[in-house]
Amino acid sequence: MQEDIYKKYMKIAIEEAEKGEGFTSPNPLVGAVIVKDDKVIGIGFHQKYGENHAEINAFLDAEKKGENTENADMYVTLEPCSHYGKTPPCADAIIKKKIKRVIIGCLDSNPKVSGGGIKKLKEAGIEVIVNVLEEECRKLNEVFFYYIANKRPFVVMKYAMTMDGKIAAVSGKSKWITSEKTREHSHKFRNKYSAIMVGINTVIKDNPMLDCRLENTRNPIRIILDSSLKIDLNSNICKTAKKIKTLIA
Questions:
Q1: Mean pLDDT, the chain, whole residue set
Q2: What are the Cα distances from residue 101, in Å, to 56, 74, 98, 119, 203?
Q3: Could you tell me the pLDDT band of residue 85, with boundaries at 50, 70 and 90?
Q4: Catalytic: 55?
Q5: CA distances in angstroms from 216 to 44, 71, 188, listed in the order given
Q6: Looking at residues 27-46, what average pLDDT do you find?
Q7: Which carries the bigger pLDDT value, residue 19 or residue 50?
Q8: What mean pLDDT comes out for the span 132-151?
Q9: Distance of CA 162 to CAs 67, 169, 242, Å?
Q10: What pLDDT does residue 82 have?
Q11: 44 Cβ contact list (under 8 Å, min separation 6)
Q12: How far apart are CA 80 and CA 76, in angstroms?
């Protein structure tokens, strides 16, 4: 069935989009796949804010392989942009490359795009299919969509607790309540989200780094709530403040 084919290639686009996690903010994660005669001839993702969008990287990949994208299908997890920002409109590039059909995972609710990309493609005679694996594609960018809708930060609360409801031993020791697997999951959050925030007592008692220790990742901005400015200048936070952006409130 055609619908199954659409889902097959959209899953590849989603997997591609995930590779940009932590590096595209405030832009969304996007993946693109170009298919011709049931063969993937180009693939790409938005790698870093301010750089090429996924569609452009997919075209560059096809070009590098010597593939002709005319009359091909393009799968993209998010509606192609139709405005000038850090880069030119992707919709224009799709039209220029003479793509026959564009299959989109979900629409972009950003007012700068919001239907404009689809409108431009249709006016150029390109067939557009929308909302293929929509839920999965929206999940990719829950932070982006939340901010567009609410104009406030997306916040995740993380804390460790014992089975009897305690966050530390009677001595105050809390390292470690969580397992190694859970700590790894926390570091994925540090890469994924823009900032990490703790109170000054956490800094005093644990002397944390609040960095991300996974390979090929980035560090979040560190925000310390310290209304009396009690932070020790010899703490790990202060000693690494030139390397990792840090805000003390």
A1: 90
A2: 16, 6, 9, 13, 54
A3: low
A4: yes
A5: 18, 36, 11
A6: 94
A7: 19
A8: 92
A9: 57, 9, 35
A10: 77
A11: 16, 31, 32, 52, 54, 55, 56, 57, 58, 59, 60, 61
A12: 8
Two tokens, residue 107:
């629409």
Rounded Cα distance between 220 and 196, Å, is 6
- DSSP secondary structure string, 48-98? STTS--HHHHHHHHHHHTT---TT-EEEEEEPPP-S-SSS--HHHHHHHTT
pLDDT digits (tens, 9 = 90+) for 117-139: 898 999 999 999 999 999 999 99
Cβ pair 79, 119 in contact under 8 A: no
At 179, is the pLDDT very low, low, confident or very high (cuts 50, 70, 90)? Answer: confident
Q: Provide the 8-state DSSP code for 20.
A: G
Strands 221-225, 195-199: pairing is: parallel
Residue of 16, 55, 123, 135 marked active site: 55
Between 171 and 58, the higher pLDDT residue: 58
| Contact (CB, 8 A) for 127 and 99 | no
pLDDT tens, residue by residue, 163-172: 888 887 777 7
Angle at which helices 2-17 and 54-64 pack, to 10 degrees? 100
Q: Which long-range contacts (CB under 8 A, 24 or more apart) does 109-114 make?
A: 109/145, 109/148, 109/149, 110/148, 111/148, 112/81, 112/83, 112/85, 113/79, 113/81, 113/82, 113/83
CA–CA separation, 143 and 26 (whole Å): 9
Q: Where are the alpha helices (DSSP H) in the chain?
A: 2-17, 54-64, 90-96, 116-123, 134-140, 142-150, 180-192, 200-206, 236-239
Give dist(CA 158, CA 189) in Å, integer: 10
Of 74-78, 163-167, 228-232, the poorest mean pLDDT is in 163-167
